[in-house]
Amino acid sequence: MEKKSTDGISAHTAVAPDEVDPNNAGRHSASRFREHEDPGNLAAKEEKSPVRGARELGLEPGSERRKKLERRLKLKLDLRFSIFVVIYSMNYIDRNNAAAARLQGFEEDLHLKGTEFQTLLSILYVGYILFQVPSNMVLNKIGRPSYYIPAAMVIWGMISVLTGITTNFVGALLTRLFLGMVEAAFLPGALFILSKWYKKDELSLRYTILYCGNLISNAFGSLIAAGVLRNMKGVLGHAAWRWLFYIEGAITMFVALIAIFMLPDFPHNSRGFSAEERQLAQLRMLEDTGEVDVDSREDKWYAGFVMALTDWKIYILMLSLTACVTGLSFNIYFPTLTKTLGYGTTPTLLLAAPPWVFSCIVALLNSIHSDRTKEKFWHSTWPLVMGMIGFIISMATQHRAARYFALFLQAGSYAGYMYTWMSSSFPRPPAKRAVALAFMNAMSQTGNIAGSYIWPSKYGPSYTKSYGIVLAMFGTTILLNVWFRFILVSANKRLEQGERAFGEHGDTLEQAANLESTTVRDAKEMQRGFRFLI
């Protein structure tokens, strides 16, 4: 897969590692980027720096200067991305506050009948599904997350406030639909942004910290709801559930203003980083997969969409994630499930918080160990098994203490969410990764639509049938993950065989080293860098 560059040197066209022909593994490099570089373009000049090579920059792996600068860069990134936890909390709180409002007259005031409440929950995911892929394509194109994400937050915060003034089913239905459309910008966008800055063996912890925003929203969202529903009833003539939407929507808009100044953009154009830090950030991505994390200027705007949807691996993970999301649908009804313990509204909401604190701790420990071992399958599987045990306990007994213990196990199953595995399985180019992450996450939300109807009141208070359905969904997820792991193991073996064959061509390695301004040894190390995480 070669073509002549303008200076007559044979250059290797860069390809995403998961698209590499195993017989030609290792040929992907940053040279494609060099061929299309525009010397008069400032962004191109910024993006050029990492392909100069670690040795030329004085940032060889293992050097004290490199270690010191890398620690400083990651600390700065971790601090600035910490706002994602708060944003995700508000994203989920604004999405799920209808469940808490239901405890204080939401259905009665809007005159909801039959399955209309379930329809309000599920309609959000229609907009959420339809807009995730276009949103990530736009984000990748404009390259300014620090403006894009906060703008979406302001809009969905306003929509949340408007939900509080609705008086009937149609009004609530429209606000929920539009809320899903705008909230679609955040999660796939956040996953994509993090993958632009962190290496494969650093992403599990960062994705889990991000996802803790979801878990925290379940814990502290219940506490906020308890306070508002208890103390704001009748204030200024408004029902307490209406104040819940007003207050939480206003908090979202306030957080958006902070996010404008905290969020980084992409490594080549972000504010608040020195030129050396931006160079190192891009160099880290180059070393992680053997390719600069930029799109070819020759690619059409829809190229990432085509590349993602023609990679059949995406559909296996999509089905697995959909089954997993369906199994996790108990989250939407967690206040209702907690109420089956037999307590009043305020104690119920307070009791709903501790299981999610436990879940957050389990998820963090699980991700730290996953990053250290670079293993994904077992770290995605055992939390699901823990959740399945919780489902079985809830099906088998009405004992109050046992059912509350089961809620802890069920909440802990969130630690098995496989966002890192998704990202590392579709690493390059960025346009493809942006679409792949958004597409898998969007399609998996059909599980939330189905999940909205798994927990009807007629199945309560035991919800045995509901637990049986989610138990089957977790089992399906595990089986699909076994299949996906087998596929990646086979792919890694083919990549290894291809690299061994390619490594025999010393003249080709020398040309690659010249293009990368590095040594033959460093070029060889870079080319053998990518493996699918299993």
UniProtKB/TrEMBL annotation:
Protein name: Major facilitator superfamily domain-containing protein
Transmembrane segments: 147-171, 177-195, 207-229, 241-263, 314-334, 346-365, 377-396, 402-422, 434-455, 467-488
Chain positions covered by the region annotation Disordered: 1-63
The Major facilitator superfamily (MFS) profile domain, residue ranges: 75-493
Lineage top rank: taxon: Eukaryota
Record's compositionally biased regions (Basic and acidic residues): 32-63
InterPro entries on file: MFS, MFS_dom, MFS_trans_sf
Keyword set, alphabetical order: Membrane, Transmembrane, Transmembrane helix, Transport
One GO CC term, this protein: membrane
Compartment(s) of residence: Membrane
Pfam family name, one: MFS_1
An MF annotation (GO) of this entry: transmembrane transporter activity
Main localization, broad class: membrane
Membrane disposition: Multi-pass membrane protein
